[in-house]
Write a structure and sequence with these properties.
Number of strands: 11
Order of helices and strands: HHEHEHEHEEHEHEHEHEHEHHEH
CATH superfamily of the largest domain: Bordetella uptake gene, domain 1
Helix content: 40-55%
Shape: globular
Strand order of the largest sheet: 2-1-3-10-4-11
Largest sheet: 6 strands, mixed
Strand content: 15-25%
CATH architecture of the largest domain: 3-Layer(aba) Sandwich
Bound molecules: D-malate
């Protein structure tokens, strides 16, 4: 919401060439000697999983080790976040964090089993992208106004699926209720993948889905796109309306980034940063992610740390102002 996201090109060179003292270089050279894992706190098929797989595959080439994706879904990403937060800070466990686990959940959950600031060492912000409101073709709605009209004539009967309580897809629905003054029932799943399939199967009436997950389904006619959650038009569908055309002030940007457990040695963080920024800058990864509707970004660990803190403050205010109930 309103953040200026730095472009990868500027940052890759600035940070990757940082020189290390000789002893630290020797230690960094001894790592990695075995495969790494990226904990993805959602089921396969959602944005977090798509981004982690694309980056992990590319980074593994530079690291000379396999990068395994470990899906630990549940509780709006809190289960996976806790697994990563408690893992040994040895450079072999990484976390694919996002706006939900790092910025929304602290304000939404009364008890969070990790601290997004204290427990992680940020490596780089990776991507940012608006979500897309999708409905099954059977729902008689082509615009957000149509959806709001149905919700008003049938209060409490429309339902929306999400990737879990506190996920970006949940908050997008909660903001629709609050700014649209409608009552829509939230049905949480364990990730955007299963939650989007619930819309295709007609189990729920709508979802704010990740673009990477929903575009193929929109293009094959299994879903209808109603609006996106960004503030300006999206490259993949310049004519698709923004939620804030109808509901001023509405904006949800789903961002993802790579982190390690706090205490991971600085020289390992530097190497991981260099490899992930290189992966983000590769033509192949950029093409793939851009096609999926993601805006590729990269920044330094310090910038990412400040970004998380500011996003956390912002979402605390949004959740309080919208009176979104705590979990
Ligand atoms: C979200 O909606 O918060 C994420 O896209 C969840 C996911 O990656 O499955």
């Amino acid at each position: 919401m309103g953040h200026r996201l730095p472009d990868i090109g500027m940052l890759a060179t600035a940070f990757a060439v940082a020189s290390l003292p000789a002893a630290a270089q020797a230690q960094a050279q001894a790592w990695p000697v075995k495969s790494l894992r990226i904990v993805v706190p959602f089921a396969p098929g959602g944005s977090t999983d798509i981004v982690a797989r694309a980056l992990g595959a590319r980074a593994s080439e530079g690291l000379g080790q396999t990068v395994v994706i470990e899906n630990r879904a549940g509780a709006g990403g809190n289960i996976g976040a806790e697994v990563a937060a408690r893992a040994a800070p040895d450079g072999y466990t990484l976390f694919m964090g996002h706006v939900g686990t790092l910025a929304i959940n602290p304000a939404l959950y009364r008890k969070l089993p990790y601290d997004p600031i204290r427990d992680f060492a940020p490596i780089t912000l990776a991507i940012a992208s608006p979500l897309m409101l999708v409905v099954p073709p059977s729902l008689p709605a082509k615009t957000l106004k149509d959806v709001l009209a149905i919700a008003r004539t049938r209060p409490g009967q429309l339902t929306y699926s999400s990737a879990g309580s506190g996920s970006a897809s949940h908050l997008s629905g909660a903001l629709l209720e609050s700014l649209g003054k409608v009552d829509v029932l939230h049905v949480p799943y364990k990730g955007t993948g299963p939650a989007t399939m619930a819309v295709v199967g007609g189990e729920v009436s709508m979802m704010f889905s990740g673009q990477g997950t929903s575009w193929p389904l929109v293009n094959s006619g299994k879903l209808r796109a109603i609006a996106h959650t960004g503030s300006k038009s999206i490259p993949n569908a310049p004519k698709l309306a923004a939620m804030n055309d109808t509901l001023p002030g509405y904006e949800v940007i789903n961002w993802h980034g790579v982190l390690a457990p706090a205490g991971t040695p600085a020289e390992i963080i530097r190497r991981l940063h260099a490899e992930f920024v290189k992966a983000l800058g590769s033509t192949e990864v950029r093409a793939r992610l851009t096609e999926d509707g993601f805006q590729v970004v990269g920044n330094t660990p310090d910038e990412f740390t400040r970004f998380i803190a500011s996003e956390k403050d912002k979402w605390a205010k949004v959740i309080a102002a919208a009176k979104i109930p705590q979990e």
